[in-house]
Design brief:
With 115 residues, the chain is mainly beta. 3% of the residues lie in helices and 34% in strands.
């Protein structure tokens, strides 16, 4: 676990998980074995990250989202609430819905600025 990282109550982290610097993981989140959350990533409440899932730098995973094992969320991307991520989400994009679909570049829908 990196510097400045915050894990809220009721977060379950299994063996082999790597969490970078300045990450926040909200309550009731489950991280299966060998998950990676890179620097400045944000994982909202009640998220499930499957085995070997990757949340890249500065990405945001919305509340209740499910990221399947071996799937990834690209750098600076945003995943909407309750969305199932079954594969790779490209960097700098916003994806949401069920089935998951691209909405727009992430910088257009957030205050994060260009990535």
């Amino acid at each position: 676990m990196g510097h400045g990282t915050v894990l809220m109550p009721m977060v379950c982290v299994l063996p082999g998980v790597t969490i970078g610097d300045h990450v926040i993981v909200r309550p009731h989140t489950m991280m299966a074995a060998d998950v990676v959350v890179r620097d400045y990533g944000t994982v909202a409440a009640q998220v499930f990250l499957g085995r070997r899932a990757v949340v890249e730098e500065n990405a945001y995973v919305g509340a209740g989202a499910k990221v399947r094992g071996y799937a990834s969320v690209g750098s600076g991307s945003v995943i909407g609430m309750g969305s199932p991520v079954l594969g790779h989400v490209p960097r700098g994009e916003t994806w949401a819905g069920n089935p998951l679909r691209r909405l727009a570049p992430a910088s257009r829908l957030t205050d994060r600025g260009p990535t």
